[in-house]
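Thanks for the sequence, V.! I ran Excinuclease cho right away. Repeating your input here for the record:
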Amino acid sequence: MRTHVNSVGLLVRSDPALSFSYPSHIDRASLDALPQQPGIYVFRDADGVAVYVGKSVNIRHRVLSHLRTPEEMQMLARTARVDFERTGGEIGALLREAQLIKQWQPVFNQKLRRTREMCGYLVPDDGVTLQLVFGRERDFAATDNLFGLFGSRQAAQEALRDLVQLHGLCPALLGLEKISRGRACFAHQIGRCRGACAGHETHDLHRLRLLEALIAWQVARWPYDGAIGIVEESDGLRQVHLVDRWCYLGVKPKGRRRKLARGEFDIDVYQILRRPLLAGDLVIERYMPL
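Predicted structure:
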């Protein structure tokens, strides 16, 4: 809080919120309409183009915090109005935010953009190495022994190098280093590999250590035989968010059921839902097999 001396010489503290003034170029009516419930909000420029999409359990509180943040002045300078869309809860807000960012690609959203080269590592049943596979080639929602989700080949390789170094694995066996037959990898020469490349560690033991290291990266299969509805309710708004194969399909329409398109694995939806869905923390209703 700021301090100042008042007219009678007393030192007082002033609350910045009391002296806050709304940016004059942003439509005041759009700000006054913001609710204190969960949902998403959209900063739009003078042409109506979305420049930023966010989410919050309290839309009004979160938007006003943006308006008070000096580091976001460039975004605020581009903003002419702020729209909102309520959701039944936090999960719905997270799903809708990810969906709209992919759809609109707002200039000030750096995360949750469309992933063009989603990939992960496959562990062959009888092999010692890893195989880098891509989402465009196989269905990640129904793939066993899949580990790690990455936005590019480079990101996947960098993550694997870190894992190899952390657990003393062999970079040569995992395709990160080329060596001549019978020679040890460079990591073994400097004491960072236990020598599976040179026969000092069995391939079976190396594979076991690799699988243990990969546990935190394991990708869960879609646990249902079709679409499900995730039920949320907040202040009189009840929504059922339809999800299939780790893909968000939107809010269930009221009234008659409609046929749903088959979902395709979405890395952001997976990261949002995996923990609460598998832990049984969400209210679920079955929709229809696809």
